[in-house]
Design a protein that fits this description.
Layout: H1 2-10, H2 21-54, E1 105-107, E2 118-120, E3 125-128, E4 131-135, E5 139-141, E6 150-158, E7 169-177, E8 183-192, E9 196-203, E10 206-213, E11 218-225, E12 230-238
Antiparallel strand pairs: 1-2, 3-4, 4-6, 5-6, 6-7, 7-8, 9-10, 10-11, 11-12
Length: 242
């Protein structure tokens, strides 16, 4: 091996002869062709960039047209609270009242508005052709002074044209509870065939009845039980809110 390496070190280097004229011309032509191709590719990239910059963007999906806003203002109608609004604090149903008012059979107090006094409600409705009845949510509170909660509920009835027309008749009925947790009728605070929304509250053994007429001033009446009957202790009027 040492002799072989020594022979390699002693051998004269073979001079580099080069590729010759034909190979040199071929390499020069290849370099020129590559430069031309690079120039063409660069030009194409520039043109593509310009075209993309001016091409309008197409949305991925159709967008709904935004409705044109108008300047006309709509004045909302006044909103009335539901018939038979709960007493302040939305108190729970007292233990003395074990009744599902919307699905019950009850005797209404004597009144001049709705003709049927014994009514069976199913899902808050009752039918005695040609009459229709509905019952609202009760309002609870002690107005008899015995320490137990009483109840006031608004009953609506209407008939067809043969019995006075379809206008609603409202009966605001006051009840105490009987020993079975059912309603014992006391008295009708109000009954009439008018366009009115009765709203009831009970506080300090006084029933406040707000008659919210759809046309004209509202009337506020206060009632107190004297042990035998209801006494109306005050009547005031207030302008109808606009």
């Amino acid at each position: 091996m040492s002799e072989y390496l020594r022979d390699l070190r002693a051998a004269a280097d073979e001079p580099y002869r080069g590729p010759g004229p034909a190979a040199a011309r071929a390499r020069a032509a290849t370099r020129r062709r590559r430069r031309r191709n690079a120039v063409v590719v660069a030009a194409v990239l520039v043109v593509a960039t310009v075209v993309v910059g001016f091409w309008p963007e197409r949305p991925a999906r159709l967008k709904p047209a935004t409705p044109t806003r108008t300047s006309s203002a709509v004045v909302p109608e006044p909103r009335f609270p539901p018939t038979g609004s709960a007493t302040p604090g939305d108190r729970d149903v007292p233990d003395d009242w074990r009744i599902d008012w919307a699905n019950s059979i009850m005797n209404l107090p004597t009144n001049d508005g709705c003709p049927h006094q014994r009514v069976r409600f199913v899902d808050g409705k009752a039918t005695f052709a040609p009459w229709q009845y509905s019952i609202g949510e009760p309002v609870y509170g002690d107005f008899t002074g015995d320490g137990r909660d009483d109840a006031v509920v608004v009953v609506e009835c209407h008939g067809d044209a043969d019995v006075g027309g379809p206008e609603s008749r409202q009966v605001v009925a006051a009840f105490t509870s009987n020993e079975r947790g059912g309603p014992n009728p006391l008295e009708a605070l109000y009954s009439g065939q008018e366009y009115v929304r009765p709203v009831v509250t009970i506080a300090d053994e006084v029933i406040t009845l707000e008659l919210r007429y759809e046309g004209g001033p509202w009337r506020i009446e206060e009632y107190r039980w004297n042990g035998q009957q209801m006494n109306r202790i005050s009547v005031t009027q207030t302008p109808r809110p606009r």
